[in-house]
From TrEMBL:
Residues 90-426 form the Glycosyl hydrolase family 30 TIM-barrel domain. The keyword Hydrolase applies. This is Glucosylceramidase. InterPro entries: GH (IPR017853), GH30_C (IPR033452), Glyco_hydro_30 (IPR001139), Glyco_hydro_30_TIM-barrel (IPR033453), Glyco_hydro_b (IPR013780). Residues 429-489 form the Glycosyl hydrolase family 30 beta sandwich domain. GO terms for cellular component: membrane. GO terms for molecular function: glucosylceramidase activity.
Length: 491
């Protein structure tokens, strides 16, 4: 693999760069300025394209030359390394009970292949992991860590997770080099703590159980850390405005604010866990601004919140993805971070393993989310079986990789490679760089890694190949992207 490193020079060289997104999101208000880079030499291009064998394949090396004023008839991507924005915390996916159960059924060599595919640099280099606090829909059954009715949490035990989930998470951490930023999310409090008396199908937390439920998070975090799984942070509630057929719990914005302010925040602090990063909302982009206004607008609640999480499922209403709402939140609360906490392609159908629009949904979301200020991006299940599960309520979905129960083989979908165009080349600590495209036929984003290497991701969602220029300051390369393709340019 060729990697061109970029050296830095003294003041006085200012450069421009080019690359962008179809909806050209507005940049954050006060970009940082980085030291200018010296004259570039080459860019290495990696491509994944529909109807070809290209899958994160090196497809060329282009030499930078002096750029001239582009014409309106030319398609250009402009990268400006003098302007940088949010810092990346990581890119990854979720290890659910479902993923861990399927993983346990793989042969030893396929387990190694799966871990390497996600967590090694020979694979796509995941650096972020989400897991659940007791059960979600993705697993063989519903459960908690205490006996029903145990308000004192005296019976609390994570023994259930030692069978499948903890071993897989520990191996993922090892494969990732010993460090993997991990955060956790609950789908529902135990049944006796809720208005409905059941974990499934919504309901709300009974106020009298708020102190016990807050202590439950602390017990979980301490139990996982005792197993040498460091917990970076947590979300308060998965999808708090959805009454689902599976584990779910409703919080209005005011209820979540008050639980954070009066219970969860103070409890974690008193338990010595005040350094854990708390993420609010953890639901779709459509209502994210109202949730941010309610919680971040209250200083006593906001002081406990690292940021706000979001999913991509607002399209169930017939809406297009509400990317602009992210920019509005970042614009209003620049000190709070945006985290994509979940997304997957719904309605599993084995005939659609190689269905290209599923992958393009990832590319479009990642480019647009990052260009609106998102600091971390987390896919849902990293592995499912050939039925789209296991899922104890039949909510079968796609994952980037599936296991064939008949052959024991792993099935790689195009989504795996689209995510890899980001996660393989953009690392924690990287900063987003100002990037714009001159036409809506291309989408693009750029990050500069801590070692000074740049990665510009360009996506073509059209049915025609596109020739384009990528300007980096006053220098330029000529490139071409196939129809229905994504590219990463490294320089």
């Amino acid at each position: 693999m060729i990697q061109n490193k970029i050296a830095f020079v003294a003041w006085g060289l200012g450069l421009l760069v080019s690359c962008s997104t179809p909806q050209s999101p507005v940049e954050e208000a006060v970009p940082e300025t980085i030291q200018p880079i010296k004259e570039l030499s080459t860019a290495t291009i990696y491509t994944t394209a529909r109807g070809t064998d290209l899958r994160l394949t090196q497809t060329g090396t282009k030499t930078f030359g002096p750029g001239e004023q582009p014409l309106e008839t030319q398609i250009s991507v402009f990268v400006n390394p003098d302007k940088t924005f949010q810092e990346l915390v990581g890119i990854g996916g979720a290890v659910t009970d479902a993923s861990a159960e399927v993983f346990a059924g793989l042969s030893a060599d396929k387990q190694e292949e799966l871990l390497s595919a996600y967590y090694s640099q020979e694979g796509i280099g995941y650096s972020l992991l989400r897991t659940t606090i007791h059960s979600s829909d993705f697993g063989s059954g519903s459960y908690t860590y205490i006996e029903e009715g145990d308000t004192a949490l005296a019976t609390f035990s994570i023994e259930h997770d030692r069978a499948y989930r903890l071993p897989m998470i520990k191996r993922a951490i090892t494969e990732a080099g010993g460090s993997l930023l991990t955060y956790v999310s609950p789908w529902s409090p135990p049944a006796f703590m809720k208005t409905t008396g059941r974990m499934l199908q919504g309901g709300s937390l009974l106020p009298e159980f708020a102190p016990a439920w807050a202590r439950y998070y602390a017990k979980f975090i301490k139990a996982y850390e005792a197993e040498e799984v460091p917990i970076w942070g947590l979300t308060i509630q998965n999808e708090p405005m959805a009454t689902q057929t599976w584990e779910s719990c409703i919080y209005t914005a005011e209820q979540e604010r008050d639980f954070l302010k009066n219970h969860l925040g103070p409890t974690l602090a008193s338990e010595g866990l005040g350094d854990k990063n708390i993420i609010v909302w953890d639901h779709n982009r459509d209502l994210i601004t109202q949730r941010a206004n309610t919680i971040f607008g209250d200083p006593e609640a906001a002081k406990y919140a690292w940021g706000i999480g979001f999913h991509w499922y607002e399209t169930w209403t017939g809406s297009e993805p509400n990317f602009e709402n992210l920019r509005r939140v970042k614009e209003s609360y620049p000190d709070k971070q945006l985290m994509f906490t979940e997304g997957c392609n719904e309605k599993f159908d084995p005939a659609k393993y190689q269905y290209w629009p599923n992958a393009e949904r990832y590319g479009k979301s990642m480019i647009n989310d990052f260009n609106r200020g998102t600091a971390g991006w987390t896919d849902w299940n990293i592995l499912l079986d050939d039925k789209g599960g296991p899922n104890h309520v039949g909510n079968f979905c796609f994952a980037p990789i599936h296991a064939d129960s008949q052959t024991g083989d792993l099935i790689y979908t195009p989504s795996y490679y689209y995510i890899g165009h980001f996660s393989k080349y953009i690392k924690p600590g990287a900063k987003r760089v100002s990037t714009v495209a001159s036409r809506t036929s291309l989408m693009a984003t750029t990050f500069v890694n801590e070692d000074g290497s740049y990665a510009t991701v360009v996506m073509n969602e059209t049915d025609e190949a596109i020739d384009y220029q990528c300007f980096v300051g006053t220098q330029v390369i000529e490139a071409s992207i196939p129809a229905r393709a994504i590219q990463t340019l490294r320089y």
